[in-house]
UniProtKB/TrEMBL annotation, chain A:
This is L-lactate dehydrogenase complex protein LldG. Coiled coil: none annotated. PANTHER family: LACTATE UTILIZATION PROTEIN C. Residues 57-165 form the LUD domain. Pfam families: LUD_dom. SUPFAM superfamilies: NagB/RpiA/CoA transferase-like. Gene3D superfamilies: NagB/RpiA/CoA transferase-like. It comes from the Archaea. InterPro entries: FTHF_cligase-like_sf, LUD_dom, NagB/RpiA_transferase-like.
TrEMBL record, chain B:
One of its GO terms (molecular function) is 4 iron, 4 sulfur cluster binding. It holds the Pfam family LUD_dom. This is Iron-sulfur cluster protein. Residues 363-392 form the 4Fe-4S ferredoxin-type domain. Gene3D superfamilies: Alpha-helical ferredoxin (1.10.1060.10), NagB/RpiA/CoA transferase-like (3.40.50.10420). Keywords: 4Fe-4S, Electron transport, Iron, Iron-sulfur, Metal-binding, Repeat, Transport. InterPro entries: 4Fe4S_Fe-S-bd, 4Fe4S_Fe_S_CS, Cys_rich_dom, FTHF_cligase-like_sf, Helical_ferredxn, LUD_dom, LutB/LldF, NagB/RpiA_transferase-like. GO terms for biological process: lactate metabolic process. It comes from Halorubrum alkaliphilum.
Length: 178, 748
């Protein structure tokens, strides 16, 4: 991760119509609350100091998933040059939570940004070989042009919001810039 | 004989019913491709990387398939290697039967279309639902895809709205794209929830891990896999690449090349069975994370169906590098006009479809649409893995010619005019075009009679009936003095070798030599004004016309003749200046397939497009004031009219653009002071002889329509460097169309 990756990443997300909120890990619940609609379901986050707001149901039933407006999940990786986030399937239901909803709120650590596509596949290779991971690189909302015009939300989410968690090092860089 | 009323009528019908929607969408994709690939730091390097991965993978395919099988099995999945479609379908039916499935949800897969697995499953009473919105529309309409990436590209929004209203009779019929999409999302969402088996294709599969990659935008493939406990993926064996890391260049290229998206919304990289719980939609009160993911099954069906034989076929092998991006369809003038329902076979469509259909289905299927590739070559730079798609079309055409060759009674009458190397019995229209060089020489010798005869009504009727030459086309008039004879008669070079900066041979291509001598004369004047010692020897035809008809042996002899005739000039260090871009493209590109590598390289390196050559002379200190400047008398190309216009409308020749010499004319014209507007239309539609053929006349005019819209009302001088582009622009815009050299050559 470098400062320029963050700049590139947020600019790409902006092009894609994805809203970004940035803050420290301990502000995660607040940022997610602001981004999420209701009802909301989620998959537990695996980020130190970061938590989800109480109204996000992190052990949803299938009925909860069906009824949910928003799904909140973490992302394992971000690709700066493309504005993509890596959604990794797991037993808690990250994949369905990110997919069967109208709005997907993605929590990503700035530290997990890589510059470009080859970096993402260099990361994926060993994990696919050793751990058989299933990862979707998602870029913006679900989209189709099959019905005579570009429409978001063909099968998957109509909107994507990214909550980008700053790391100590990047906050330090910003401080010295000021 | 070649003229086939049914074919022309079928194309006319498609242009009327589907042409507008196809044209708008494919041209949009094509423009998007230029923009999106233009944003890459090094597009060419990325394409080269992708190409070399495919070369390596196909070379090592048997070994990679073994490795992949081990990996998938180690992950807990099953691999079935199917010999053909019937074998693959039998296996899929067994899996579906064992799962006791009533419904299969499917995401878009061309391989599954090739197998016709939907029909196979339906015959067992299984409900197969296509979940890609475009595929679903086609399933409802009982139509076939017209494009490999956007299957319902031929259907307008209005037609889809009508279809939904008719099929579902909703209270509040959806009309806008948004409403139609949400209507489909809701219906399909319910159908996916109830499905038992999910079927997908795979864009790439990594042998080192068993990871499969899916390129999608809607999210239906994700839902198809997640919502069902049994995942069946069908993929051609050629989809295997060695490692996960090697996915990267393809992910960067596939969306950009196809629909002009930098990347599609979802790149799924699955190493199945996937690690998600299976949502229980029928008992939805339980926790989503109930551990049901443990019950997931995965079956990978790798399909041969002719591919391993293609791998052994030196000419068709490259087809296996194809990543189904659709760039060759979108960049193709003919495809833009008619779409995949005409320019396609049983499954695949666009330029590369000839290779797929020849390899998977057979020559007879490829023969149905192979004519629609004119060899314009605009797909060559567009292809992300650098497949020489026109060459595959040429080779398949040659095989079709040879297969169809039966002796015909008419042949004896034309033997002298059509001295080709192909077996007797070849279609007469093919032979007349293929032997155009001989025909033109004869026409020029007897010009007054030949010209009068050629355009006379009764003769045109016979030409149309017997040789398939459309009577609505004006035939080019033969000159009564050839370019070579003119040059001799004027006393040869005006600049002596001793006084010259360079020495050049101007290649008297068939069109310049016998039809459009003025552009030859202008070339000589332009080169001499910049101090070049010019020769115009009598040289053989390049072989372009026979090659365009798939007459590879005849083209090969022509290449050898040209190479040996130019040999002494090349030895003497002379440059070869070519006026007709399709002939220069032969020397530089296709001769690589027809000559030995050394001979090809020597000729290719010494050959220049005339405008490229002038550009080089000016770059090296040549004086632009020695050329004709705009605003001066003795107007473009003719001493008869004083044309002082300084605005130029220029259509670069398709093959010239492919070999990278389309822009030099613009640079030279601007250098001497013209204001140049350049068209971005890929091909004018004439494409050599294509637009003369009765079957294709109307299509050819339709392909040229964007040029008419762009240049038809313009008060600029219309210029084009190809002879056939000139004929087409004359027909579209009224003419006369000039070669750019005629605007810059000093007056006589």
């Amino acid at each position: 991760m470098s400062l320029s990756d963050t700049t590139t990443f947020t600019r790409r997300l902006d092009d894609l119509g994805v809203r970004v909120a940035t803050g420290p890990a301990d502000a995660c619940a607040e940022l997610v609350a602001a981004a999420a609609g209701e009802p909301a379901v989620g998959a537990p986050l695996d980020v130190p100091e970061a938590s989800l707001p109480d109204h996000v149901e992190t052990d949803p039933t299938t009925a909860d998933l069906r009824a949910a407006h928003t799904g909140v999940t973490g992302a394992s990786l971000g690709i700066a040059e493309y504005g993509s986030v890596a959604i990794e399937s797991d037993r808690t239901g990250t994949e369905p939570v990110s997919l069967f909803v109208d709005r997907h709120v993605v929590v990503l650590r700035e530290d997990d940004l890589v510059p470009d596509m080859p970096d993402a596949f260099a990361w994926l290779g060993p994990r696919a070989r050793d751990e058989s991971v299933d990862v979707v690189f998602a870029t913006g909302p679900s989209a189709t042009a099959d019905m005579g015009g570009l429409v978001h939300g063909a099968h998957g989410p109509k909107e994507v919001h990214v909550v980008l968690l700053e790391t100590e090092s990047s906050r330090h860089v910003e401080d010295t810039d000021e | 004989m070649s003229s086939d009323v049914d074919r022309a009528a079928r194309l006319r019908e498609l242009m009327t019913t589907e042409g507008d929607a196809v044209a708008e969408n494919t041209r949009g994709f094509n423009a998007g491709r230029y923009e999106s690939t233009g944003r890459l730091d090094d597009y060419e390097a990325l394409k080269a990387e992708a190409r070399s991965i495919k070369e390596d993978a196909i070379e090592r395919l048997p070994e990679l398939v073994d490795r992949l099988t081990e990996q998938v099995e180690a992950n807990g999945g099953t691999v079935y290697l199917a010999d053909d479609a019937a074998d693959a379908n039998r296996y899929v039916r067994e899996v579906v039967d064992e799962r006791d499935a009533d419904r299969v949800a499917k995401s878009k897969s061309m391989t599954s279309e090739e197998l016709e697995v939907n029909e196979a499953l339906a015959s067992d009473g299984v409900d197969v639902v296509e979940t890609d919105l475009g595929e679903w529309v086609l399933q409802l309409a009982e139509e076939a895809p017209s494009h490999i990436v956007a299957p319902a590209i031929h259907k307008s929004r209005e037609a889809i709205a009508e279809l939904f209203a008719e099929r579902f009779d909703p209270d509040d019929p959806p009309e806008t794209a948004e409403e139609l999409t949400m209507f489909a999302r809701e219906r399909l969402g319910e159908l996916i929830e109830d499905a038992d088996v999910g079927m997908t294709g795979a864009n790439f599969i990594a042998a080192d891990s068993g990871t499969m990659l899916l390129v999608t935008s809607e999210g239906n493939a994700r839902k198809t896999v997640t919502a069902t406990d049994t995942h069946v993926a069908v993929a051609g064996v050629e989809k295997v690449v060695p490692t996960v890391e090697e996915f990267s260049p393809f992910v960067e290229l596939i969306g950009r090349s196809g629909t002009g998206q930098d990347v599609t919304s979802y790149i799924s990289t699955l190493t199945p069975p996937v690690d998600s719980p299976v949502p229980k939609f029928d008992s939805d009160g339980n926790s989503l994370a109930d551990g049901s993911g443990d019950d997931r099954e995965f079956h990978l069906v790798l399909v041969d169906n002719g591919r391993m034989a293609m791998r052994e076929d030196d000419e068709l092998k490259e087809t296996l590098y194809c990543i189904r991006c659709s760039a060759c369809a979108n960049s193709c003038g003919n495809f833009q006009s008619v779409g995949g329902h005409a320019f396609g076979g049983e499954t695949y469509s666009g330029g590369i479809a000839t290779g797929w259909e020849a390899g998977v289905e057979g020559l007879d299927v490829a023969a149905e649409f192979n004519d629609l590739c004119t060899g314009c070559s605009r797909c060559v730079p567009a292809c992300p893995v650098g497949i020489d798609i026109p060459w595959i079309n040429t080779v398949v055409r040659d095989r079709i010619n040879r297969g169809e060759a039966e002796s015909s009674q008419l042949d004896w009458a034309f033997e002298e005019l059509v001295p080709d190397e192909e077996p007797g019995g070849l279609d007469l229209g093919t032979r007349l075009v293929g032997n155009y060089a001989t025909l033109a020489e004869w026409g020029s010798r007897t010009a007054p009679i030949a010209n009068r005869l050629a355009n006379a009504g009764p003769v045109r009727a016979v030409l149309e009936r017997v040789a398939g030459i459309d009577r609505r086309r004006e035939l080019p008039a033969f000159a009564d003095e050839s370019f070579v004879d003119w040059f001799d008669a004027r006393g040869g070079p005006a600049v002596s070798a001793a006084a010259a900066t360079r020495e050049a041979v101007v290649y008297p291509d068939t069109a310049t030599n016998y039809v459009d001598v003025d552009r030859g004369k202008a070339t000589v004047r332009a080169l001499e004004s910049l101090g070049v010692h010019v020769r115009v020897p009598d040289l053989p035809g390049s072989g372009r016309p026979p090659l365009s008809q798939g007459m590879v042996s005849t083209a090969e002899s022509a290449a050898e003749n040209v190479s040996s005739a130019l040999s002494s000039h090349l030895d003497a260090g002379r440059d070869v200046v070519v006026i007709e871009p399709s002939d220069l493209a032969m020397f530089r590109r296709e001769y690589g397939r027809l000559l030995d590598p050394d001979a090809h390289e020597r000729l290719a390196e010494a050959s220049y497009d005339v405008m490229e050559y002038l550009f080089g002379l000016l770059e090296n200190g040549g004086d632009p004031d020695a050329l004709r400047l705009p605003g001066t008398a003795d107007g473009p190309g003719s001493s008869e009219t004083a044309d002082t216009r300084s605005g130029v409308a220029y259509h670069p020749h398709c093959q010239a653009r492919t070999i990278g010499v389309g822009e030099h004319a613009t640079a030279v014209l601007e250098r001497v002071g013209y204001d140049v507007r350049v068209s971005d239309t890929e091909c004018c539609g004439m494409a050599g002889s294509f637009g003369y053929k009765a079957d294709y006349y109307e299509l050819s005019m339709d392909v040229g329509e964007p040029l008419r819209e762009e240049f038809g009302e313009s008060d600029r001088v219309v210029v084009a460097s190809g002879t056939s582009c000139g004929e087409q622009l004359d027909a579209l815009c009224g003419g006369p169309t000039r070669h750019p050299v005629e605007l810059v050559a000093p007056p006589k």
